[in-house]
Design goal:
The protein is an alpha+beta fold. Helix content is 37%, strand content 20%. It contains eight helices and eight strands. The strands form three sheets. A four-stranded antiparallel beta sheet has the order 6-7-5-8, with helices on one face. Strands 1-2 form a two-stranded parallel ribbon. A two-stranded antiparallel ribbon has the order 3-4. Helix 6 packs across helix 8. The longest helix is centred in the middle third of the chain and has 16 residues, at 77-92. It is elongated.
């Protein structure tokens, strides 16, 4: 805690029996924005600086596996994105990353494969895209030029939902169902369509579906 950032990074690789590599150390310092803070001691670092320093320290001996536990919790948006970019770089260079996070957007963007846990139980673990496609729900969102009073009879079997003001209709799209067929059906019904959008599923929706948060059953990542 009383070593400076510079001193800590110089000696830390020795804990793993690895000689200090100045070029690698300086690259970490620059990529993680630590250069202006090398003379500061750990106990005086801000939360964001501590996280950057901990990532640099974890990488100083060039590990094959890097475990990151909530690396961006409580940091500002700019730092979060800079850390994401750097983690992607080292992953592309061959370092395996094991990331735990409650930020589902972060998990979806960063991870090739995800595991969703609820109170210590793994509910799903598979490639991110496959999981979202398998459990997520695509929807066709229809903004109407004139409000409707009720869901049209021809759409009720599809579990279409009408917003309270009657100006937006949301129709679930079954897996493998092309949206074009449904759009054609909407025009056949003579709906006053102002705008159409196909809403893609995301990891947050899958998480809610698996953990039962919609029904107030709790859940944690």
């Amino acid at each position: 805690n009383f070593f400076t950032i510079d001193r800590s990074l110089r000696i830390h690789s020795g804990y793993f029996g690895v000689e200090d590599d100045p070029a690698w150390r300086n690259m970490l310092i620059d990529r993680l924005g630590l250069r202006p803070h090398l003379g500061k001691v750990m106990i005086k670092l801000s939360g964001g600086l501590k996280r950057r320093f901990m990532v640099a320290k974890a990488l100083i001996h060039k590990p094959k596996l890097l475990i990151l536990d909530e690396p961006t919790a409580g940091v500002d948006v700019e730092l979060r994105h800079s850390l994401w970019d750097f983690v992607r770089e080292i992953n592309a260079q061959g370092t395996t990353i094991l990331l735990t996070t409650h930020y589902l957007e972060e998990a979806e963007q960063m991870c090739d494969r995800v595991a969703i846990m609820n109170h210590g139980e793994i509910l799903a673990m598979e490639p991110t895209g496959e999981l979202v496609r398998r459990l997520g729900r695509r929807e066709l969102v229809v903004d109407l030029a004139r409000p409707l009073q009720v869901v049209p009879e021809g759409l009720r079997h599809l579990n279409a939902q009408l917003d309270p003001d009657g100006k937006r209709l949301t129709v679930p799209l079954a897996a493998g169902c092309p949206s074009g067929e449904l759009v054609g059906r909407l025009f056949e019904l003579g709906l006053p369509i102002a705008e159409l959008e196909t809403r893609q599923p995301n990891l947050e929706e899958v998480f809610i579906e698996l953990t039962g948060l919609k029904n107030g059953q709790g859940g944690a990542a």
